[in-house]
Amino acid sequence: MVEPTLFPRQPPQPEEHIRKQGADTAWISRLSKKINALAVSLKILEERYSTLKERTQVSEQNMIEMEKELRGDIKMLSEDVMDIKRELKDLNDKLRLISAEIKNLVNKNDFKVMERYVDMWQPMNFVTREELNKLLEEKKSLE
Question: What's this model's pTM, rounded to 2 decimal places?
């Protein structure tokens, strides 16, 4: 729809033209102020957009750096977990060996029986071969 004030259907009368010219300058002045206000608003919006774009880029860079750090940390933790698993396996193997050795040990009752035999035989009173040979030589020399 076309505004009637912008495109008149009949040519204006000379007096009317002067009156309209003053109205046109007021209208142009208001339009100019509105355009200037829009330009300022547009500039502010552009600056905000630029600031947000920069913040977004910084945030993305920070996220990328954090992701790299996290991947490194996860890799180290994974290696640590693997080391712990290996150590646990080694400990389990050693515990199995110790358990097998403990099964081969003498139980308390068997030990008591052996202790009684040792007390009864008194092996500290036994003679060694060397001592026996020495005693036999002394006896031969005395005879």
Answer: 0.47
* CA–CA gap between residue 142 and residue 11 (Å, rounded): 171
CA 88 to chain centre: 23
DSSP classification of residue 76 = H
For 50-100, the pLDDT digits (tens) are: 999 999 999 999 999 999 999 999 999 999 999 999 999 999 999 999 999
**Measured between alpha carbons, how far apart are the two ends of the chain, in Å?**
157
pLDDT score at 125: 82
Distance CA(32)–CA(83), nearest Å, equals 75
Give the tens place of pLDDT for each residue, 129-142: 998 899 899 988 88
CA dihedral 98, 100, 104, 106 (to 10 degrees): 50
- Whether 20 contacts 12, CB under 8 Å: yes
Query: 3-state class of 74 per DSSP?
Result: helix
Determine contact, residues 136/143, Cβ cutoff 8 Å.
no
CA dihedral 73, 76, 78, 82 (to 10 degrees): -160
